[in-house]
Amino acid sequence: MSRFDEDGNTGLLSDPRNAHFRDVAARRMSRRSLLAALAASGAALAAGAPLPLREALAQGGSTLAFKSLVPKITERHQVAEGYAADLVIRWGDPVAKGAGPIDFAAQNAASQAGQFGYNNDFLAYFPLPQGATSSEHGLLWSNHEYTNGELMRAGVKNRLENALKADKAWTEVEMAAHGGSVVEVKKEGGAWKYMAGGALNRRVTAATEFVIAGPCAGHARMKTSADPGGRKVLGMLNNCAGGITPWGTVLTCEENFNTYFGGDAAKAGAEARNHMRYGIGPHARARYAWARHHERFDIDREPREPNRFGWVCEIDPYAPDAPPVKRTALGRFKREGATCWLNKDGRVVVYSGDDEAGEYVYKFVTAGRFAFGDRRANFGLLDEGTLYAARFNDDGSLDWLELSHGKNGLTEAAGFAGQADVLIEARRAADVAGATRMDRPEDVEANPVTGKVYVMLTNNSGRGEKLPVDKANPRAKNYFGHIVEIVAPGGAGRDGDHAAPRARWDIFVLAGNPAEAAHGARYHPDQAASGVWFAAPDNIAFDPKGRAYVFTDQGSRQTSNAIPDGVYVADAEGPGRGLFKLLFAVPVGAECCGGAFTPDGRTLFVAVQHPGEGSSFDKPDTRWPDFKEGVPPRPAVMAIRRVDGGEIGG
Ligand code: FEO
Ligand code: CA
Ligand code: CA
C-alpha cells in the first residue's frame, strides 16, 4: 500500500545530528565504488565515444546495455528503447471458466469473484507443465492487495466517501476484488497473453476458506463464534508481497490487515494491548465499511478475528482445489513479503519485513530440511521452525534474536504464556527481544548469484524525532528510503549460512536526488551526472546475472519528487554497482511492484498498481491502459521483454 505521512515538509534532510552517521555510511560505500567509477568513467571517456559527457558518465562501468529513460511522469507507461511491454491482464478481465468481462456500471461480487482482482502487487511465475523450466508458458500468481473504491465506481470522490457510501453489495464487490489470482500465461508470436478460463486459473478472495496451520492452529486466541475450533478462517487481506518456496508454491503475505476492522481496540479486553500494537480500529471507518456489514470485522463483537490475519499464506498454484493455508509459525505482523532461501544444509530460510515506521526485519528457519524430488513431503515444512528478528549493530554486525518462548525475555512474566502468544504478538516479542526499529522494512530479497540479502526501507519521515537515527537508519526525516545489504557468514553465493545467528550488514543505497546535497543520497558516484534517481524502494528482483531491479512506490510524494515510479536497475557488484538506470516507468498515480523474471531472464513481469490514485472514477488523472471514455484506470500486469528477444538488461 502506498502511504506517506503528510506533514508539509519538502524533503530537506539537514538534521545536524545525522551528519556523523551519514559520513560513516558514505565512507563505507565509497571505497570500492569510487575506485571502480574512476576506472570506468576513464574508460568511457578515453574510448572517445561520441556521447555527450552526461551520457558517457552515466555508463560508469555498468553492465546494463540499455539507455535509461529520462524520468518523467506521464499518463502512460514508458519503457526503454529496444524493449516492449505487453499488457497481460487487467482488473476485471475474466479469469475463471465461464467468467465474463467487467461491466463498470453493474459490478457485483459474483462476477468479480471470477475476474482478475484489483491492485495487483506481488507476482510469481510458475512454469508449465509442473516440473518443467519453460519460460514461455506458465502460471502467473498475482496478489490483489487492496481496493480503490473511488477509482472503481462512479459517484465517489475519495476513499472516505467510498467507505461512507458502501452498502453491503458494494462491500462484497471489494471483498471479491481482494486476495489473489492464478492465471495461465503464454508467449505467442513473441508477445505475452493470458488464457481466460485456463484449467488451473483460480481466484482467492476475502471470502475463500483457509486452513490455519502451525503452532497457533486451534489456540484459544484464534477461536471465534464462526470458528470455535480456531482452525479455519475466511479470506486473506491486504496481500502485498510474497515469495516462492523451493517446492513450487506461492507464499502471499497479509500486510495492513488492521484497516478492515472496526470497533474500539481499547475495549477489547485481553486483546486490547495486542490490537493497539497493530493499529486496529482507527483506520477502518476511513477506508472500508466491512465492519458495518460483516460482524466478524467488528472487534466489539469478535475481538479475536484480527488474530487470524497478518500471516504468511501458502497456496499451491498447480492445485486449484487445494485449500490455501495460513502458516502461523512464521509470526504475525504487517508482513510485506516472504523470500525463501534454500540453505546449504537443506533448511529453508524465509526473510520478511514488517512495513510500518519503526518495525522490524525477520527471518524464519525451518526445523526440517527440504526433500528433493518429493514435493508433497515439503508441504508442512513451514509449520515448524524458529523465528528471529534482526538487531543491526553499529559495528556492521547483525544479531538474529530468537523469538522462542522462554528466550530473550519472552516469558510468562512478560505476557507470553507460550509460543502461540509470541507468534500472534510477534511485534511485541521483537520489542522485548531488542530488535532494531527500521525505516518501514518492505521487501527483503536474496540475490541468487551473490547470496547477499537486500532490505528495502521505503521511507520514514518521523525518523529523528521519536525515533533517533542509528547507523542502519542513518537519516533523520528519511523521505526517500534506503537499501540495506545483509551478508550471511560462511562465504558467497550458496556457501553462505543463512541459518546462522549472526551476519554482517552494509548500506547499498541511500535514495533521493544525489544532485541535491540536502537529500543526503548515496549511489555510485556517477549517478548525479546521469540525471536519474529514485525514492521509496518497495520491492527488488534480480536477473539471472544478479543485477538489482528496484521497484518504487512513492505514494503521494510522487508529485513533489517529480519522478515516476518504476523499475530502476543497477549492477549489484563490480564497477557499475549502485549506478541506476530507469527501465520502465508506470503511469501517474501508480506504484510499480511485482517483479518476476522467467527462468531464462528474457521476460520481466511487473505489476502496475493503482494507476490514477489520488483522482477518481469521474475525474481520473489517466485512463491507462484502455484510454477509453467511461473506462477508469485499471491496475494491470505487464510483461517487459526485449524486442530482439534477448535477456533483459543485456
Ligand atoms: Fe503494500 Fe508495504 O507495501
Ligand atoms: Ca507498495
Ligand atoms: Ca509493498
Strand order of the largest sheet: 14-15-17-18-19-24-23-22-21
Helix content: 10-25%
Our estimate of the beta-strand percent is 25-35%
Number of extended strands: 31
- Overall domain count: 1
Q: Uncertain regions: pLDDT < 50 for 5+ in a row?
A: 1-54
Shape: globular
Count up the helices.
13
Look at the helices and sheets and give the structural class: alpha+beta
- What small molecules are bound in this structure? MU-OXO-diiron, calcium ion
Mean pLDDT level: 91
Provide the gyration radius in Å.
Answer: 23 Å
> What is the terminal-to-terminal distance?
32 Å
**For the report, how would you describe the main beta sheet?**
9 strands, antiparallel
Protein described:
The chain is an alpha+beta fold. It has one domain (21-255, 310-642). Helix content is 15%, strand content 27%. It contains 13 helices and 31 strands. The strands form six sheets. It has a nine-stranded antiparallel β-sheet with strand order 14-15-17-18-19-24-23-22-21, covered by helices on one side. A six-stranded mixed β-sheet has the order 9-8-13-12-11-10, with no helix packed on it. A five-stranded antiparallel β-sheet has the order 1-28-27-26-25, with no helix packed on it. Helix 1 packs across helix 2. The longest helix is centred in the N-terminal third of the chain and has 28 residues, at 19-46. The relative contact order is 0.16. The model is unreliable at 1-54 (pLDDT under 50).
